[in-house]
Amino acid sequence: MGLSLCLFVLIFDIIFSMEKYTVLLVDDEPEVIQIMQKKIDWEGLGFTVDGYAENGVQALEMINANPPDVVMTDIKMPYMDGMELSAHIREQYPEMRIVLFTGFDEFEYARQAIHLNITEYILKPVNASELTETLQKIKEDLDKERKDQQNIDSLMKYYEESLPAMKSRFATLLIENQVPSDQIESMAAEYRFSLKEPYVCVVIFHVSRTHAPEGTDYQVLRMAVWRYVYDRLKNKWNLLFFSYQHDNVMIVQMHEAEDATKLTDDCSIVARNAGHVTGSVVTAGIGHVTDGMEGLRASWLGAREALSYRVLYGTGRAINISEITPGGNDSYEIGGTESVHAILQQIRMGDEKSLNDSIDDFFAGVTEHATSVTQYRVELSGLVSSLITFAGNNQVTVNSDNDPYQNITEMDRASFAEWLKNVCLDMQSQISATRVSSGVSYVDKAKNYVLNNYQNPALSIGDVCSELGVSESYFSGVFKKTTGESFVSYLTEFRMETAARLLLETSDKSYMIGKAVGFEDANYFSYVFKKQYGMSPTRYRKREEVK
Fold first, then answer.
1. Report field, pTM of the whole predicted structure over 0.85
2. Is there a contact between 355 and 424 (Cβ–Cβ < 8 Å)?
3. What is the DSSP secondary structure assignment for residue 127, as one 8-state letter?
4. Packing angle, helices 461-468 and 472-483, rounded to 10
5. In this structure, how many other beta carbons lie within 10 angstroms of the beta carbon of residue 501?
6. What is the pLDDT of residues 214-224, one digit of tens each?
7. Which residues lie across from 203 on neighbouring strands?
8. Are 365 and 339 spatial neighbours (Cβ–Cβ below 8 Å)?
9. How far is the C-alpha of 284 from the C-alpha of 306, rounded, in Å?
10. For residues 390 and 131, what is the distance between their CA atoms, to the nearest angstrom?
11. The predicted structure's pLDDT at residue 182
């Protein structure tokens, strides 16, 4: 073990020394950015310029799409200045380095923003040697932080300090449903686990083995993710964090059941950032909210089930089982063999071939192990019972002309297998249709909300999700999957199309039309309109009038 860890540290140091940190440059003067790109030896300093933005709005979009390690921004910019951009960055990406370019008259103003934790201030015009020195310091700081994140001794000590054996053991007993309900409170006190809130749910943070950085010890990587997630969530939620079945698991206490929506969004942000910092792929599965600790096993099963849906909804985010199941409770623990569970899993998420293969595997196993007709029929009865329970939990129907249990005695093996495949394929189709219908319904409701509220300059995806009662993480994925574009793009296009229509149907000035479609800043409205149509609002109106 010691040799393998030492080898890992050596490999990590070699990989680490070759790593380039990413930088986003933000300035509304293109010539300033060009000068910095030419005069700074970015590669030699250990950095690569990942892109540049002309204003804070554009920069924030780029950061959310692909978070860089460092943002270097001017203060004075249109639409969103550097201070406001820094505030957004610090709220969502606390570990990101920020360098502010300031004019002499802005310097004291910038320094007053201590709460933004700006990494460095550089007076304009930018001096190449000063910027090089700043980048060297940032590189050293980033190197130290990354090495600390992967330091074996530090991680093990943190593990021992943060997750005492008593609490971890107690949490495991709760998950395994081995604590009598009348003893939970006394045992919680004994293990120093405070029961403060009435509602709880389980969250599992899964770290992908297949997408781990080459040469990285998986357990060390999981520890790094564990440390990062705990540090970011411990002050926001009343939680117990521990390891269970090779995954990082949280028991989260909540004051209201509806808090699960906020928890989902927080976990989604943390999963994405943890993946970026550690070079891995992290996905969070969130179980059903339960009233009291007695339901923790069901919530854990739901969280585990939510993770299995990452093949449909994508990795690197949070998936809440309550948002993706069609009204049912997949956390119900259905009895049966592994082959039965494989069939149910393929009904949920597989294709026709995978489902048929699972059914064939089931019958092959029954034929091999059943030593009598009675045992054979018992196995089939167990499968039918699991199907009926599964259908009830997922609000679908077992469509059959005959009593399913009667078919066991009246049909031969081949006929029953054919009947079973048809029934399971029908259930698979029902679940798929319900999932699509649910997504379309959310999209239609969101579009209707935009229709009634697009004039509001503050309208955001958070407002829509609050109206729909779902997390931003889930809604964003469903909207993109259903429409092929992000919600922000749809809102912008809707506003621009409405503005274009008003330009032709009214004689209102462009700044009035901008306000009418939700833009308080007339210059920014013109900027977005030109980006959409390739010309200013005034020119657009004149061109159409000529037609």
1. no
2. yes
3. P
4. 100
5. 12
6. 888 888 999 99
7. 250, 286
8. yes
9. 8
10. 62
11. 85
